[in-house]
Design brief:
Radius of gyration: 28 Å
CATH class of the largest domain: Alpha Beta
Mean pLDDT: 83
Structural class: alpha+beta
Helix content: 40-55%
Strand content: 5-15%
Number of helices: 6
CATH architecture of the largest domain: 2-Layer Sandwich
Order of helices and strands: HHEEHHEHH
Distance between the termini: 59 Å
Amino acid sequence: MLAQLQQEADHLRVQQAALHEALPSALQARCQVAKVEDEGELLLITDTPAAASQLRFLGAALCDSVRGRRGRAPARVRIRIEPRRTQPVQLARPRHLSPAAATHLEAIARHHPDERMRQALLRLASRAGPSGQD
């Protein structure tokens, strides 16, 4: 079973390389071969609708560039869009208010007429870091 999976992975790698050569440079990093069937279907995966549209336009030429296991070109192209998953952006370091900024916020809060704003300013001022950090 493992040998069969390895053969399939090798076949897809070869077909990916053939597809890569047939694609314009703008699409090369955006397209991946998912499946190639003899006299059947070439399934491509891309990350944007714009890239999918360009791939559909190139469909026949792409079928000619890849081959199934028996060396035959697939008859049609099917394209699936799968947006790339991105990791949430993490801040390099936590951000702190300087003690001087906290003092100013507290002074504003003491004289502000709106109680909700006063509480928000005090919460913000409480986030001040140790002295020497900005």
